[in-house]
Write a structure and sequence with these properties.
Blueprint lengths: L4 H13 L5 E4 H7 L6 H10 L10 E2 L12 H12 L3 E3 L2 E3 L2 E2 L3 H5 L5
Parallel strand pairs: 1-2, 1-5
Antiparallel strand pairs: 3-4
Helix pairs in contact: 2-3
The structure holds a DNA duplex (13 and 13 nucleotides).
Length: 113
DNA sequence: TGCCTGACAAATA
DNA sequence: GTATTTGCCAGGC
Protein backbone atom coordinates (compact mmCIF):
# COMPACT_ATOMS: atom_id res chain seq x y z
CA UNK A 1 0.00 0.00 0.00
CA UNK A 2 1.11 3.44 -0.74
CA UNK A 3 0.62 4.65 2.78
CA UNK A 4 0.28 8.22 1.67
CA UNK A 5 0.59 10.98 4.21
CA UNK A 6 -3.09 11.77 3.89
CA UNK A 7 -4.00 8.13 4.52
CA UNK A 8 -1.74 7.99 7.52
CA UNK A 9 -3.49 11.02 8.92
CA UNK A 10 -6.88 9.41 8.45
CA UNK A 11 -5.74 6.23 10.17
CA UNK A 12 -4.45 8.16 13.15
CA UNK A 13 -7.69 10.09 13.40
CA UNK A 14 -9.61 6.82 13.21
CA UNK A 15 -7.69 5.35 16.15
CA UNK A 16 -8.00 8.46 18.30
CA UNK A 17 -11.69 8.67 17.52
CA UNK A 18 -12.15 5.09 18.70
CA UNK A 19 -10.66 5.61 22.14
CA UNK A 20 -13.41 4.85 24.70
CA UNK A 21 -14.39 7.46 27.22
CA UNK A 22 -12.31 7.38 30.38
CA UNK A 23 -9.41 5.65 28.65
CA UNK A 24 -6.16 7.13 27.42
CA UNK A 25 -3.50 6.23 24.88
CA UNK A 26 0.04 7.34 24.09
CA UNK A 27 1.16 8.96 20.85
CA UNK A 28 3.39 6.00 20.11
CA UNK A 29 0.55 3.60 20.81
CA UNK A 30 -1.82 5.52 18.59
CA UNK A 31 0.67 5.55 15.74
CA UNK A 32 1.35 1.83 16.16
CA UNK A 33 -2.34 0.94 16.16
CA UNK A 34 -2.76 3.15 13.12
CA UNK A 35 -0.23 1.00 11.29
CA UNK A 36 2.55 3.57 11.60
CA UNK A 37 5.06 2.33 14.17
CA UNK A 38 7.56 4.96 15.15
CA UNK A 39 5.50 7.82 13.78
CA UNK A 40 4.52 9.21 17.16
CA UNK A 41 5.44 12.69 16.08
CA UNK A 42 3.20 12.37 13.09
CA UNK A 43 0.29 11.58 15.38
CA UNK A 44 1.07 14.66 17.42
CA UNK A 45 1.20 16.77 14.28
CA UNK A 46 -2.13 15.36 13.09
CA UNK A 47 -3.80 16.23 16.37
CA UNK A 48 -2.36 19.73 16.25
CA UNK A 49 -3.73 20.17 12.74
CA UNK A 50 -7.07 18.49 13.38
CA UNK A 51 -10.21 20.59 13.23
CA UNK A 52 -12.76 18.00 14.32
CA UNK A 53 -14.56 18.94 17.55
CA UNK A 54 -15.68 15.32 17.88
CA UNK A 55 -12.11 14.12 18.00
CA UNK A 56 -11.17 13.04 21.57
CA UNK A 57 -7.60 14.24 21.15
CA UNK A 58 -7.51 14.94 24.88
CA UNK A 59 -7.30 11.16 25.43
CA UNK A 60 -3.90 11.09 23.77
CA UNK A 61 -1.01 11.52 26.19
CA UNK A 62 2.74 11.07 26.18
CA UNK A 63 4.43 7.76 26.92
CA UNK A 64 4.97 8.94 30.48
CA UNK A 65 1.24 9.41 30.93
CA UNK A 66 1.69 13.15 31.01
CA UNK A 67 0.00 15.95 29.13
CA UNK A 68 1.94 16.78 25.99
CA UNK A 69 1.02 20.45 25.84
CA UNK A 70 2.83 22.93 28.07
CA UNK A 71 1.09 23.62 31.39
CA UNK A 72 -0.71 26.94 31.32
CA UNK A 73 -1.57 26.68 27.65
CA UNK A 74 -5.23 26.84 26.58
CA UNK A 75 -4.93 23.38 25.08
CA UNK A 76 -3.54 22.02 28.32
CA UNK A 77 -6.38 23.47 30.34
CA UNK A 78 -8.93 22.15 27.89
CA UNK A 79 -7.44 18.67 27.91
CA UNK A 80 -7.39 18.52 31.70
CA UNK A 81 -10.97 19.75 31.91
CA UNK A 82 -12.19 17.14 29.41
CA UNK A 83 -10.31 14.29 31.07
CA UNK A 84 -11.72 15.19 34.47
CA UNK A 85 -15.17 15.34 32.92
CA UNK A 86 -14.68 11.72 31.87
CA UNK A 87 -13.69 10.57 35.32
CA UNK A 88 -9.95 10.80 34.81
CA UNK A 89 -7.90 12.32 37.59
CA UNK A 90 -5.26 14.79 36.46
CA UNK A 91 -2.66 16.02 38.92
CA UNK A 92 0.11 18.43 37.98
CA UNK A 93 -0.24 17.49 34.35
CA UNK A 94 -0.10 13.78 35.15
CA UNK A 95 -2.96 11.41 34.48
CA UNK A 96 -4.05 9.13 37.31
CA UNK A 97 -6.66 6.40 37.49
CA UNK A 98 -6.93 6.21 33.71
CA UNK A 99 -6.07 2.87 32.15
CA UNK A 100 -4.34 2.47 28.80
CA UNK A 101 -6.78 1.22 26.19
CA UNK A 102 -5.78 -2.34 25.41
CA UNK A 103 -8.28 -4.00 23.10
CA UNK A 104 -8.59 -1.13 20.70
CA UNK A 105 -7.49 -3.30 17.82
CA UNK A 106 -10.88 -4.92 17.71
CA UNK A 107 -12.64 -1.70 18.53
CA UNK A 108 -11.02 0.21 15.73
CA UNK A 109 -10.42 -2.24 12.89
CA UNK A 110 -12.51 -5.16 14.03
CA UNK A 111 -16.07 -3.85 13.88
CA UNK A 112 -18.07 -2.60 11.16
CA UNK A 113 -16.63 0.13 9.98
C1' DT B 1 17.37 20.98 -2.77
C1' DG B 2 18.80 21.48 1.98
C1' DC B 3 18.22 22.98 6.85
C1' DC B 4 15.24 23.65 10.96
C1' DT B 5 11.40 22.74 13.85
C1' DG B 6 8.15 19.76 16.30
C1' DA B 7 1.21 18.24 21.05
C1' DC B 8 7.35 12.21 20.63
C1' DA B 9 9.78 7.67 22.38
C1' DA B 10 13.28 5.08 24.37
C1' DA B 11 17.64 4.76 26.70
C1' DT B 12 20.96 6.59 29.91
C1' DA B 13 22.78 9.36 34.01
C1' DG C 1 11.39 10.50 40.52
C1' DT C 2 13.58 14.12 36.87
C1' DA C 3 17.11 15.84 33.27
C1' DT C 4 19.68 14.99 29.06
C1' DT C 5 20.80 12.74 24.55
C1' DT C 6 19.79 10.28 20.30
C1' DG C 7 16.85 8.65 16.65
C1' DC C 8 12.89 8.96 13.57
C1' DC C 9 9.80 11.16 10.19
C1' DA C 10 6.85 14.80 8.12
C1' DG C 11 6.06 19.67 7.12
C1' DG C 12 7.53 24.47 6.41
C1' DC C 13 10.77 27.88 4.57
Amino acid sequence: MTTSAADSRERILRVVRSIPRGQVLGYGEVARRAGLPGRARLAARVLSENDDPKLPWHRVLRSDGRIALPAGSPGFDLQVARLRAEGVTVIEGRVRGARPAADLDELVWGPPR
